[in-house]
Amino acid sequence: MSGSTATTTPQTTIRIPAPAVTALRDALLRPDGRERVAFGYCSRSGNDLLLTEVEQVPDENHRHSSPGSCRPTTACEREFISRCTSRDLHPVFFHSHPFTDTAWFSTLDRQLIDRFRKWLTTLYPDRDLLFGVLGHEEMRIERVTADDSRPVAVDIKGEWELEQPVRPTHTAAPDAPAVDTERFDRHLRAFGEAGQTKLANTHVAVVGCGGIGSILAQTLARLGIGKLTLIDPDEIEVSNLPRLPGCTHGDVGQLKVSAMHQRCWEANPDCDIISIARPVQETEDYLKNADIIVAGVDRVTARYWVNQFAVRHLIPYVDAGTVIETSDADPPQIESMEVYIQTIVPGVTACFDCLDRGDPDQAYRESLDSAEEKAAVERGYIDADIEPEPAVIDLNQLAAAHTVSAVKRLALGTQPPVAFRKYDDVSGDQALLETHPNASCPTCLGNSLALGDSTISSAADQEIATAPLDDAALANPLEQTDRTTRDWFPPAVTAFFASDLAQHPTTDP
Amino acid sequence: MNERQIHLDYHTFSSQYRVRLSEGHTRLLLENYDYPDGWQPREAPLFIRYPDAYPRMQPAIYIPENLHYTQGPVVHRMQCKFDGWKRWCTHHIPWERFELVTTDDNIDFMDVVRASLAHPSVRNPLQDPAPKSFLQRIH
Question: Are A292 and A318 in contact (CB under 8 A)?
Answer without folding.
Answer: yes
